[in-house]
Amino acid sequence: MAIDQNDDARVQGVSIRELPKVSLHDHLDGAVRPETIIELADAISLEVPETDPGALADWFAERSDSGSLVEYLKTFDLTTAVMQTREGLTRVAREFVEDLAADGVVYGEVRWAPEQHLQGGLSLEDVVEAVQEGIEDGEDAVEAAGRDIRVGQLITAMRHTDRSLEIAKLAVEFRTRGAVGFDIAGPEDGFPAANHRAAFDYLASQFFPVTVHAGEAAGLDSIRSALIDGRALRLGHGVRIAEDLEVISREGEEVFVQLGDLARWVRDREIPLELSPSSNLQTGAIEQWGKELEDHPFDLLYQLGFAVTVNVDNRTQSRTSLTRELALLAETFEYDLGDLEAFQLNAAAAAFLSVEEREELIELIADGFAR
After folding, report:
1. Has residue 5 been placed in a domain?
2. Do the strands 254-259 and 245-251 form a parallel or antiparallel pair, or are they unpaired?
3. Number of structural domains, the chain?
4. Spatial distance between the Cα atoms of 168 and 149, rounded to a whole number of angstroms
């Protein structure tokens, strides 16, 4: 059983869960079901902090609500520990896909770092194949249940290690076997994309899509490096692009904002922002603006015309789903179905798919919202 994720959330009387959705920023090791962690841990004699699924879900939520990305990331020690075997990886990937489909997602991209799953003796190729097997099993199970979903892998390198070129080559190797893009993740502050220039040069030479975690734990310099050194087509989070906005006047409810050169570039080039509202609160990414969802610059960025998308980041740690994130935003900023559709269309346009596939996805979303 997956985590409770606001089954009854509605906007204008319509179930958000039943609307077709696109998930772009969703970590595999951040979406492991608590009951699966307990069962896999028992199989390898690994001690867990709680042996009841509900209590373990509470443990993740409490530990993750620290206001620090570094502390937030420590909770992944447990999830990655049960993902060191082919069986564990395949099961987690299969359930990941099933949970996405249950949340109404029709297209998803799952990001994960193969280099973190080698402790059981598997090779980099072994772990990617195991995850792909799980994804395909999940897609088959969803189809058998009468729904459709497609999920692609974002092969991720850890920014504080020195394996990024090796992982980039791995991603390209699997581009016809499930890999749709590349990412770097992990501690952002002090580890800019510039440190991995060789990997990004290689990916550019292979015309392989890149998204980069930036503008979460670090500010504008991180975003600048992601765009210049990483040639990022999307920004993982990117919420701190709001630091390059200056409110110059207010007239009633109208706010007049001046954009800096970086913010204007991101907006005018429609570089997608992979915003994750609940996670951004938990990690302190928006602390300079406040500590409540209403303080999140999401709505300001949306109103200014940035290509905002809505994401979960880590479903287990944030005890969330895409349905819940959309429900929270709708409640906080009084969004209607048209707004929620705009977020999904932005995500569909940003997907690492061919033009034809993105057009089909956009049509699928438009039809679903029209119904």
Report:
1. no
2. antiparallel
3. 1
4. 26
Q: How many angstroms separate the CA atoms of 227 and 269, rounded?
A: 11
Read off the CATH number of the domain in which 298 is found: 3.20.20.140
Bridge-based pairing state of the strands 211-214 and 234-237: parallel
User: From the candidates 115, 216, 274, 325, which is the catalytic residue?
Assistant: 216
d(CA 48, CA 52): 10
User: Tens digits of per-residue pLDDT, 129-184?
Assistant: 999 999 999 999 999 999 999 999 999 999 999 999 999 999 999 999 999 999 99
Examine residue 265 and state whether it is found in any structural domain, yes or no: yes
Domain-embedded: residue 2:
no
Specify the residue for token string 């690492």: 352
- Type of residue found at 60: F
Q: How far apart are CA 34 and CA 61, in angstroms?
A: 11
Contact 135, 178 (CB under 8 A): yes
Contact 266, 223 (CB under 8 A): yes
Cβ atoms of 84 and 120 closer than 8 Å:
yes
Structure tokens at 180: 């749709």
Known catalytic membership, residue 216: yes
Distance CA 75, CA 200 (A): 29
Q: pLDDT tens digits, residue range 278-310?
A: 999 998 999 999 999 999 999 999 999 999 999
Spacing of C-alpha 73 from chain mean position: 14
| CA distances for 140 relative to 94, 105, 135, 144, angstroms | 9, 15, 9, 6
* 3 within domain boundaries: no
**Segments forming the whole domain that contains residue 355:** 10-370
